[in-house]
Amino acid sequence: MFYSLIAIGIVGISDIFRKLASNLKDPFFTNLVFQLSATTFTIITYFIFSRKVENNPKDIVFAILGGITIAAFSLFSFKALSTGPGASVVIPVLRIGGIALLVVLGIVVLKEKLSLQTFIGLIFSSIGIYLLFSNK
To answer: Which InterPro entries does this one have (predicted)?
Structure first.
């Protein structure tokens, strides 16, 4: 849970920088700079803290696909932030929408159980997205 709280703080700060960077005219260039910075940070932390190499091709492919989808997410989020109603609406919708999709995919693809608590969370998330968009 400790690392989750750190990640929540970091993603909030990251989203502020994401919004500020969205003022650049070309979202492809913005995404390139964003991803190169992330790659540089990742390489540095890898060499400082790990240096382990794993030989599990299937999981490596999943990591590559995850990286590609994060890069695509970043590109479209920069575009949404540069043309959308503002960070206070766009970023929560991106995050809540992503979480809702993850829950659905977890149930359909990973065969996870849908609990009452998760279902209620999805309902409240949907209401939240509606309220954010209906106010603008």
So the answer is: EamA_dom, EmrE-like
Distance CA 6, CA 28 (A): 28
Question: 């989020």: which residue's tokens?
Answer: 77
81 and 87 Cβ atoms separated by less than 8 Å: yes
Read off the pLDDT of residues 87-129 as tens digits, 9 standing for 90 and up: 888 999 999 999 999 999 999 999 999 999 999 999 998 898 8
Sign of CA dihedral 67, 72, 78, 80: negative
42 to each of 35, 46, 106, how far by Cα in Å?
A: 10, 6, 27
In the chain, where the domains are located: 2-134
Q: How confident is the model at residue 33 (pLDDT cuts 50, 70, 90)?
A: very high
CA-to-CA distance for 21 and 42, rounded, in angstroms? Answer: 20
Are the C-beta atoms of residues 18 and 81 closer than 8 Å to each other? yes
Compute the residue count for the chain.
Answer: 136
